[in-house]
Amino acid sequence: MAKPMTKAKVADYLAGKLDVSKKQANTFLEELARLSYREAKNSFTIPGVGKLVLVNRKRGWAATPRPASRSASRPSVSSASASPRRRRTPSSAAGNPRALRSSRAGRASARPARASR
Questions:
Q1: d(CA 38, CA 27)
Q2: Share of the chain above pLDDT 90, in %
Q3: pTM summary value
Q4: Nearest to 53 by CA among 65, 64, 41, 63
Q5: Is 52 exposed, middle or buried (0-12, 13-18, 19+ CB in 10 A)?
Q6: Helix H segments across the chain?
Q7: Quick check: 64 and 72 in contact, CB under 8 A?
Q8: How far is CA 52 from CA 7, 37, 57, 59, 84, in A?
Q9: Residue 27 has pLDDT above 60, yes or no
Q10: Higher per-residue confidence, 74 vs 33
Q11: Is 113 within 8 Å of 96 (Cβ atoms)?
Q12: Which pLDDT band holds residue 9 (cuts at 50, 70, 90)?
């Protein structure tokens, strides 16, 4: 799939086609954009291209940002207690990885085995 033209490439193309400077072509594009933004509330038609219409849609769930006050007031959680699935092991098994694996063995049998990729 071909990449879309950038604003600079469009201005360069128009400048060559209309025998005007790139600066004038760029100014034309900027004014067209300003005019279309200003008039979009009334519907704006660019002859031969299309029609811009402003549509007021119902606000969606994803568009609603989380209030800053809720996230700022949350207490910080230490990394040791952050994972609720982590099991506490006896202090004798804390430094021994094999003992840690054996303490998880009972829990792993309750779940189906994952297929290796």
A1: 16
A2: 32
A3: 0.46
A4: 41
A5: middle
A6: 7-18, 22-39, 68-73, 97-110
A7: no
A8: 19, 9, 15, 20, 51
A9: yes
A10: 33
A11: no
A12: very high
